[in-house]
Design brief:
alpha+beta; ten-stranded mixed beta sheet; six-stranded antiparallel beta sheet; 19 strands; about 30% strand; globular
Length: about 350
Amino acid sequence: MENYVNFAVDKAVELLAIDSPTGYTHDAEEFVLRKFSDLGFSAKRTVKGGILVDLGGKDESNALLLEAHADTLGGMVAEIKGNGRLRIVRVGGMNANNAEAENCRVVTKFSGVYEGTLQLCNASIHVNSDYATVKRDFDTTEVVLDECVETADDVKKLGISVGDYVCFEPRTRVTKSGYIKSRFLDDKLSVGILLGFAKYLKESGLTPERRIYAHITVYEEVGHGGAASVPTGVTEAISVDMGCVGDGLQCTERQVSICAKDSGGPYSYEVVKKLIAAAQKEKADYAVDIYPHYGSDVEATLSAGYDIRHGLIGPGVYASHGYERSHKDGVLNTLRVLRGYVFE
């Protein structure tokens, strides 16, 4: 699987360059659809906007669905202030504490894109004596547009209006030592991993005993990405998302994480055991963890009423929902587990 790591990371980097906060995902959808199609697989867009891919395999009555998501965190214009600044609300779990001072783009409905920065209101330390103590949220921060605007009317003349999306700069870097740093590795890194796994399936010439599908969803960050479009015959679904790294957990950025339980409850005991067995068979470096604050696409699939077994894996990602970091080794180990699970 080593040969497919760089491909997976390269595709993730390309996708990271495409703004796609939940609800504004058309360009990301087009990218994903084209890349799976370029590999020779049948891929189609669902009505909701997700990309459903048939990766081949024999038994359609015992099929496996792999889920990842291309939507990310972001913001939306909620108010155009009298001074020409923008109050925004978050899309998904964007946090003002780690979005402060980040460059962003305001995508208007009809008038193009404008650049700006999310700043604390009254952001000059030399002027604001309360700078260090102000609680950061989206009421105490604002988007400062890089345009000559001083009033709300000035902003409106640009075509900016309430409901326009605010997309944050990902600042993607891949270091010589193999670390991958960016906003929104959750979950574009795993979209790259599924593209890498698809390339492996195509080039290996191997046919899985069971049918394999992939669903790249576009509403995961708001909780209902995986709630539809499960092909007939699917009995198991696995979210390929980020693995948590932090205090109290075992996983590092260089491992694949297998989640036993998150805030939505335990994952299928049978699937978790099979994932561990796959990791051991493939000699993948893995950790089993419980995530304290987490929900996944596959839990939305279950909540929608589908009768399936479910699991969750992903490369270890540090600083989740902030400026995130993973490693190529985590990508490799995730690919290994996928191969071990599909060809058990």
